[in-house]
Write a structure and sequence with these properties.
The protein is of the alpha+beta class. It is about 20% helix and about 35% strand. The protein is built from 13 helices and 30 strands. The strands form five sheets. Strands 9, 12, 16, 17, 18, 21, 24, 25, 26, 28 and 30 form an eleven-stranded mixed β-sheet that branches. Strand 3 (about 90-105) and strand 4 (about 110-125) form a beta hairpin. Helix 2 (about 40-70) crosses helix 4 and helix 9 packs antiparallel against helix 10. The two termini are about 30 Å apart.
């Protein structure tokens, strides 16, 4: 894929946008829809063949992620009170249909497959000292398979993506002594939400499973974390005839209503209007929602805010398909609500659509955001040695802006690639080791640890596995890998202010590790195609002068974005000291950019290297 930059690992991200130009106020509709009437036996056959691999994947998800998800939903004083004692997946019986084929813009083919999956899950938990059994997990939803982009050579598509457009319905049965838990709705709700969160984070938009067919076309990170098709702005205007949930002997029954809007994994909450059944919102009522597929749907629900008890549901809507919301002639949409099958009033909202592009529009949108910043996190290296006793992986990266917007990345993992140890490679390593050669890595092209692993795997398999686990731990701690793109919506910059994008590596206790990367938004917007390509190096902060540095921040400080030559980069690894406001000349062959504090007297003994790229896109308001 062509790119204006020579950043090979990030070509797809750094190059011009692949999204088609869209009309700002109206999203493009699918051009054709065909309902397949054939039998779905072939889907059952494919599922039966693939089930052993799916079973292993599901078992790993349940055993590794369920307990943390359950405990994360608990209050701090209750964390660690839910344990997964045993888990078996068992057989799964799926029912498929209907199968709908539709065309997305620019020739993308989407196959929507209805799936109703019943699994013989048998899960044993201990919750607050109560034995809880879960059986017969049921999952019902629409699975989308996308063949895109079109290609000029077989198989005529560049990649395959699989995701749930909307969160599937999840249900299960409680067994054994879990009958006691039936009387504790809080426990059941926690378990249900944890199971649903695992499914959502793995397969519900914007999450997806993606595979590159033509490996030279697009980076796999770009496939898994694409930019949204556009931004849908919803404005909550008013409610009519809402239910009363607050009763008093001295006042008329009323409510303190607010609205929740759900799309994909996103849940947004409006402001609360006090004591009314006919609320009119004038603030805290506008939200910008990234849209990844026009078949996504939105769900609205009205709630009564309570201080001392749980909030009461006043009513909820059916799911509204985004393409239908945006296809209406009137920007305003009236949404009926229901409660326990009975009518429960309505909500009135307006909807607008904004495409994305690198060109700044003639006028900025009057709303919560005007820019989408996308930060492609590959990995981080050069962390200070012994960077804290509590700094154990996995790590996360907090992406924030000085305007207040923030998003957190997924957890880091190690970048271990396990080589296929052929007999030839093993013999070469064995022969060179016997002859006392010290340059085995240079001759074989293998990293030193791989050379040692090659020597162990054929002679002492148990020791090779122990050594491999040590290597994994070291890599996860010293070179955390993310392979993720974080998207962050940014508000219009305030007059005279400079918005700064900040990326901060944090451990499990949310303590900062190493040095944060800070990039002024104006630098990003001034770059070609609003894109900056890494890697970037940031000088380690000097712990001795940390206190004085914080004091000097009260007088203001600046970050300087520079390119550095390989010689300068190596020199900075030994010692870095820069006077205030310094900027080095750009080296034509450089590959690392450096961001350093402009504080007087700031010193460092090394650099953290952020292997990342940054890109900004404007919300297009021009008609």
């Amino acid at each position: 894929m062509a790119s204006e930059f020579s950043c090979v690992p990030c070509m797809a991200f750094c190059g011009p946008t692949l999204l088609p130009t869209r009309t700002p106020q109206k999203a493009r509709q699918p051009r054709r829809e065909v309902v397949a009437q054939d039998e779905h036996k072939w889907l059952h056959d494919v599922f039966a063949i693939a089930w052993p691999q799916i079973d292993k994947w599901l078992h790993r998800k349940v055993t590794e992620e369920l307990a943390p998800a359950l405990n994360a939903a608990l209050p701090s004083l209750m964390k660690g009170r839910i344990l997964v004692k045993s888990a078996t997946i068992g057989k799964a019986t799926p029912n498929f249909g209907p199968v709908i084929t539709r065309e997305r813009g620019c020739g993308d083919v989407v196959i929507d497959i209805g799936i109703d999956l019943s699994s013989q899950l048998n899960l044993s938990l201990e919750a607050f000292g109560i034995s809880v059994g879960i059986q017969d997990l049921v999952l019902n939803g629409t699975l989308s398979v996308i063949l895109a982009p079109p290609a000029s050579r077989p198989p005529f598509f560049g990649a395959v993506e699989v995701y749930f457009v909307n969160p599937p319905k999840v249900d299960f049965h409680l067994t054994g002594t879990a009958l006691v838990a039936e009387q504790l709705p809080r426990i059941k709700r926690i378990i249900h939400d944890a199971v649903a969160s695992i499914v959502n984070k793995t397969m519900v938009l914007p999450a997806r499973v993606a595979a590159d067919i033509h490996e030279d076309d697009k980076d796999h990170v770009d496939l898994r974390f694409p930019a949204p098709l556009g931004i849908m702005r919803l404005t909550m205007l008013q409610g009519h005839g809402l239910r009363a949930a607050d009763y008093s002997i001295v006042q008329m029954a009323t409510s303190d209503p607010y609205v929740k809007i759900e799309i994909g994994q996103t849940v947004w909450t409006s402001s609360t209007v006090k004591r009314t059944l006919e609320p009119i919102w004038s603030e805290g009522n506008v939200v910008d929602l990234p849209v990844y597929d026009l078949a996504q749907s939105v769900k609205l629900s009205a709630w009564d805010e309570d201080v001392s008890t749980a909030d009461d549901l006043l009513g909820e809507s059916k799911r509204l398909v985004i393409s239908e919301i945006l296809s209406g002639k009137d920007a305003k949409v009236s949404v009926p609500l229901s409660f326990n099958g009975a009518a429960a009033g309505s909500l009135l909202m307006s909807a607008a659509w904004f495409g994305l592009g690198s060109n700044k529009p003639r006028y900025l949108s009057n709303g919560p955001s005007c820019l989408l910043a996308s930060l492609k996190l590959q990995s981080i290296s050069g962390l200070p040695p012994g960077h804290g006793a509590g700094a154990s992986p996995p790590f996360t990266v907090l992406v924030s802006a000085s305007s207040g917007a923030s998003e957190r990345s997924d957890q880091s993992h190690h970048s271990l690639w396990l080589p296929e140890v052929s007999e030839e490679v093993h013999q070469i390593c064995k022969h060179m080791q016997a002859s006392g050669a010290h340059d085995i890595s240079a001759v074989t092209g293998l990293d030193p640890w791989k050379v040692k692993y090659c020597g162990l795997v054929r002679t002492n398999a148990a020791e090779a596995e122990r050594y491999l686990e040590t290597v994994k731990e070291n890599m996860a701690r010293e070179n955390p890998t993310f392979e993720q793109i974080v998207h962050l919506l940014l508000p219009p910059p305030a007059n005279g202010s400079c918005t700064v994008l900040k990326m901060e590596l944090q451990d499990k206790s949310k303590h900062c590790i190493g040095a944060a990367l800070e990039v002024p938004l104006e630098e990003l917007l001034a770059a070609p195609n609003c894109t900056l390509s890494g890697p970037f190096s940031v000088a380690w902060p000097d712990p001795v002068k940390k206190l004085s540095n914080w004091k000097s921040m009260s007088y203001g400080f600046s970050r300087r974005l520079i390119r550095s030559s390989p010689e300068n980069a190596r020199a900075r690894q030994k010692h870095v000291e820069s006077p205030k406001g310094s900027r080095q000349a750009e080296s034509p062959g450089s590959g690392t950019r450096s961001l350093r504090d402009g504080q007087a007297g700031a010193t460092s003994t090394g650099c953290v290297v952020w292997h990342t790229c940054l890109r900004a896109q404007w919300l297009q308001t021009d008609s």
